[in-house]
Amino acid sequence: MSADNLISIRDLSVHFPLSKGLLGEKATVRAVDGVFLDIPRGSFVGLVGESGSGKTTLGRAILRAAPITRGRITYRDGDVDYDVGSLKRAALKDYRQRAQLIFQDPYAALSPRMTVRDIIAEPLEIMKLTQTRAETDQRVREIAIKCRLNLEHLRRFPHAFSGGQRQRISIARALVCNPRFLIADEAVAALDVSIQADILNLLKSLQRELSITLLFISHDLSVVAHTCDVVAVLYLGAIVELAPARDLFSRPRHPYTQALLSAIPSLNPDDRGDQQRLSGEIPSSLDVPGGCRFHTRCPIARKQCEKIEPVWREYGQGHFAACHFIDPN
Ligand code: SF4
């Protein structure tokens, strides 16, 4: 693992055994299926894919909230070097302070019976990171200001706030323990478009100011386009393309990424000519197709795609993809 990577994921699988049918046949949900991913320290990494691609399960596995079936997640920061899957007690508690989650739905994530001050303070109290109420209040105020919350609002209850304000409260709660790594899982999906930009800008500026590493999970490529440094595209539990954001958007290599990009509505009527629409639904992770897992929906699939899994190759600096038919030039 490079010293520049805060998180390094190697051959990670999260599988769930299941009984199906009247006879209780055994089956396996392959939610995450052999993922390799490095998350550089201080970076803003996007993880994109349709619903059912496994992005939330991957995020949960990194946070040790989903069981790891195979592979390894390593977290390295200064003297700390954790094999996330085997952490116990004190080390797991320390890791949970270092790696936090911002929830998708700011309406459901905040307890309606707690004041904003108590919501933000709760992680400090659970992890016993402050000794006195005055110390807790001081930390809550500091992080509230950073998240552009009005200090007057700390005494109010969540129902008094809009979706954007609630998401700022969620962000403050995730940051109050001074984590090194944040996962934002569809953190703007429930918000109006105008508010989305506001929250994305806030996350970006906090990430820089606090030197945090951020994994931003989204089903929407257009949301990550202007925010992320690097984007990984996930399809049916596996990463099919990874590239610096600018490269990915200017020259997507994988047919799946091309289809996702062409599904983004354009204001320019001339752009509509070469759109590649995805056909059908993403297959079930109970029944992942053999060969290239995208072959059942790929507009350029050929016979060999059904049998042979494509190799992960580099096409330019830091730009990787897995497809048999990418022009290397
Ligand atoms: Fe499409 Fe075949 Fe490439 Fe898979 S390997 S993306 S099916 S062309």
Description:
This protein is of the alpha/beta class and 329 residues long. It has one domain: P-loop containing nucleotide triphosphate hydrolases (Rossmann fold). It contains ten helices and twelve strands. It has an eight-stranded mixed β-sheet with strand order 6-7-8-3-9-10-12-11, sandwiched between helices. Helix 3 packs parallel to helix 5, helix 4 (133-146) packs across helix 5 and helix 5 packs parallel to helix 6 (193-209). The mean pLDDT is 91. The chain binds iron/sulfur cluster.
Keywords:
8-stranded mixed sheet, 329 residues, 4-stranded antiparallel sheet, Rossmann fold, single chain
SSE inventory with pairings:
Blueprint: E1 5-20, E2 25-40, E3 44-48, H1 55-62, E4 70-77, E5 80-83, H2 89-98, E6 99-102, H3 116-126, H4 133-146, H5 163-175, E7 181-185, H6 193-209, E8 213-218, H7 221-224, E9 230-235, E10 238-244, H8 245-250, H9 255-262, H10 303-307, E11 312-314, E12 320-322
Parallel strand pairs: 3-8, 3-9, 6-7, 7-8
Antiparallel strand pairs: 1-2, 1-4, 4-5, 9-10, 10-12, 11-12
Helix pairs in contact: 3-4, 3-5, 4-5, 5-6
Bound molecules: iron/sulfur cluster.
